[in-house]
Here is the input.
Amino acid sequence: MNPIRKKRVYNILTVLLFSVSGIALILFSLNSKLDYFFTPTELMNKTFPIDKRIKLGGMVLNGSVKRASSNISFIVTDYTNRINVEYEGILPDLFKEDSGVVVLGYLNNQTVYAEEVLAKHDENYMPPNIEVINDN
Amino acid sequence: MFNFAFNSFNEAIYMNGHGVFVWSVLIIVILTLYIFFISYIFKIKKIKKKLNESN
Amino acid sequence: MIKKFIHQFASPKTFISKVDTYYNFIFYSALLIYVLSIIWGILFTPEDFVQGNSFRIIYLHVPASFLSQSLYLAMGICSITFLIWRVKLAAYLIVAIAPIGAMATFIALISGSIWGIPTWGTWWQWDARITSTLILFIMYLGLISLHSSFSNYEKADKLLSWLVIVGAINIPIIKKSVDWWSTLHQSASITLTDKPTIDPVMLYPLIGTVIGFFGLIICLVLLSSKNQILIREKNKSWVKDYV
Here is the structure.
């Protein structure tokens, strides 16, 4: 390679090195702030002001969903710790026991008073009948 | 693998309430692609015409 | 020999004549594959065991998301080629690809938002995957407007190439966002290392839509580059013979 091109390659590599390390530093310093939600364990080890809106993510504990008129309460778990959730409103279609959920609301006394409940599904896609075959 | 997934045509449109989402995304995709193809074909025609006139 | 090959292929004149020769073939085969795979995916695939019929949006969303990132990488390769070898065609290609990339990202964002309504229960959340994709869209728009704000093409090409290279960092971030941080978006179903977590009956039409959409996008890039070449080389004698 001729010297001019060699120099251009080095220039590109230098720019890349600096910008990658710059972005990497920013991402590392922000790291957990870029998380979309807290797990129940993370939430228990932190204190929040009562008016701070937080997001809690995890699985809906099997058998924990209780409905009383328009109020719904359930437990979100990461299989280590549990957090109670109180909610009044419409649930997404995919909200189910033993499936992923993200709750947006305010934490008070180990209970999240939710303003919004979102369903989180995983990366598995399959036809319904396959599950039945596996169960048998 | 190639079985029609619905019992009737109406069911295929309705998709248990999800039809409105699926079909609207399909329309948006088709429209966007169509607009881009047409606009580029038109642009090329326009510049060719312009160049021909200046020759 | 490689030099000679690059030199020949990289001549805008050869490029345009190659485009004219192969365009129809690529366009019609891509269109056929895309339309058939879409019909297969939307009407002839069983519904998903969790998401029901709304999962069918995957056949429109995944190809666009895949292409939005691939097109940026293509721009990156063109930028490096232009900065090292000063190949003019590479610079034309960067400018030609940017709007198509913006289009693919737009489709990815819109289809993702609409898909989010029946599944997540929201059309927009600031999670790492969605936000980094929005940044990609804004970057495409920024690159387009930056280039058109210059009157001096030579300077514009160089600045554009540098910015494309710096911005390329966003691509691995988008890709890995679902693994590095907690997100509302699920992690990847198809990876190079593991078995796909999507059932084969749903996977085959998906591969078809990706190939078909890829072909259609290639056609758009070819048209857009042809347009760009004619604009930039309008004073060359071969263009006068060509039109």
Remarks:
- Chain C has one domain: 13-242.
